[in-house]
Amino acid sequence: MTAPLPPEDLWVFGYGSLIWRPGFAFVERAGARLHGYHRALCIYSHVHRGTPEVPGLVLGLDRGGICRGVAFRVAAEQAEETIDYLRAREQATAVYLERRLALRLDDGRRLTALTYIADRNHEQYAGRLPEEAVLALVRQGKGVSGENPDYVRRTHEHLHEMGIHDPLLAHLVAELDRTSGPAAG
């Protein structure tokens, strides 16, 4: 008889707020690339950065392209707890589809990671909106996790620190700063 295989560590891919606020314990963090999806402000936020009456706009992984982000390795004994946490956080309105997708870490390792992609059939899927509409939604959004402009600024800041340039986020931050001044702290 062979002994059962030990449980495996869990990898999680973050492309937005998970980069700067993962909310779970991890044993390794590494830059990563996901092929076949791109980061997009394509989700109407009804909980974290808005409400159904006054929605904000948050990031989702949408089809096509490549997304650079962060892969987190979670110890096997914390995998179930981490998945439960992520489901509660990311699936508050079931706007994302939970998937395990192939990633390539910046050091060349290939692995499969848990991530959440935009459900194009969900009523909160915004798709590609004109920049003026995106800016208006971001300006108005406020939910249980805070104000939408703070979410955009923090995501932009952390992507910039990682050497990732997101033209839309950079434009939005410049517009937000131009019209309301830089965020404090």
Low-pLDDT stretches are none
| Backbone structural class | alpha+beta
Mean pLDDT: 94
Anisotropy-based shape: globular
Helix content: 25-40%
The radius of gyration computed from the alpha-carbon positions, rounded to a whole number of angstroms, is 17 Å
What is the terminal separation in angstroms?
A: 59 Å
What string gives the helices and strands in order? Answer: EHEEHEEHEEHH
Strand order of the largest sheet: 1-3-2-4-5
InterPro entries: ChaC (IPR006840), GGCT-like (IPR013024), GGCT-like_sf (IPR036568)
Keywords: Lyase
Enzyme class: lyase
EC number: 4.3.2.7
How would you describe this structure in keywords?
185 residues; alpha+beta; five-stranded antiparallel beta sheet; two-stranded antiparallel sheet; 5 helices; 7 strands; 29% helix; 35% strand
Molecular structure report:
The chain is an alpha+beta fold and 185 residues long. Helices cover 29% and strands 35% of the residues. It has a 5-stranded antiparallel beta sheet with strand order 1-3-2-4-5. A two-stranded antiparallel sheet has the order 6-7. Helix 4 crosses helix 5. The longest helix is centred in the C-terminal third of the chain and has 14 residues, at 148-161. It is globular. 37% of the residues are buried.
